[in-house]
Design a protein that fits this description.
With about 200 residues, the protein is an alpha/beta fold. It contains four helices and twelve strands, in the order E-E-E-E-E-E-H-E-E-H-E-H-E-E-H-E. The chain has a five-stranded parallel β-sheet with strand order 11-10-9-8-12, covered by helices on one side. Strand 2 and strand 3 form a beta hairpin.
Length: about 200
């Protein structure tokens, strides 16, 4: 376990409603596994408030910790919306066992919306380390504009034939949309992942 004080270094817009927040690591021996989560304290209306988030960055991305959140009407979320570089934070962790299997090489990721964060962490780690996993991601979103990490996920899939990304939108954005529409339901999963019985499933959404 580790804990340390730090300050926000960067706020990155991912979609119109989703932002990533990065914090420099200011302690020794800060380690975590892709897919885990941590706790963060920030100031909300002048008082310390705690929340937990999945790491949206990978252990292969050194020097910082990142989480990604959809901005909502809650007090904590409003404080994040106002966060700027240099603002104080306290981080502690890591926690959780939602991590890459050491027994299964064939995996299936089912995600909706902001649930992509721990899965993006795992896929980035697999891509950066050249690990021999076979992963299919079914990623559901309400609209094309709200697909977090879309360009990066698609780029990883183009670069590695063992990483497949399939987008599912509630409604087709244009008549030219070639992806899937609807919901991630059992029939769609079976149709898209015919070898599903050979895979370990991760669900996050």
């Amino acid at each position: 376990m580790w804990d340390f004080e730090t300050g926000c270094s960067e706020v990155i817009p991912r979609t119109p409603s989703i932002r990533s927040f990065r914090f420099p690591i200011r302690a020794k021996n800060v380690r975590f596994r892709a897919g885990q989560f941590f706790f963060i304290d920030i100031l909300v209306q002048g008082e310390k408030a705690e929340h937990h988030f999945s790491f949206s960055n990978s252990p292969s991305e050194k020097g910082y910790i990142e989480f990604t959140k959809r901005i909502t009407a809650g007090a904590f979320s409003r404080a994040l919306a106002a966060m700027k570089p240099g603002d104080w934070a306290h981080l502690s962790g890591p926690e959780g066992n939602f991590t890459l299997s050491r027994k299964w090489q064939k995996l299936a990721f089912l995600s909706g919306g902001i649930g992509i964060t721990p899965l993006r962490s795992m896929m980035r780690y697999v891509a950066d380390k050249g690990l021999d996993y076979d992963i299919v991601l079914l990623y559901g979103n309400s609209s094309y504009e709200e697909i977090a990490f879309r360009q990066e996920l698609d780029s990883m899939a183009r670069s590695n034939p063992k990483l497949r990304v399939e987008h599912v939108l509630s409604e087709a954005p244009t008549p030219a949309w070639r992806g899937m529409t609807g919901r991630i339901v059992p029939g769609l999963v079976a149709e898209t992942i015919p070898d599903l019985r050979e895979r370990l499933f991760y669900v996050s959404g």
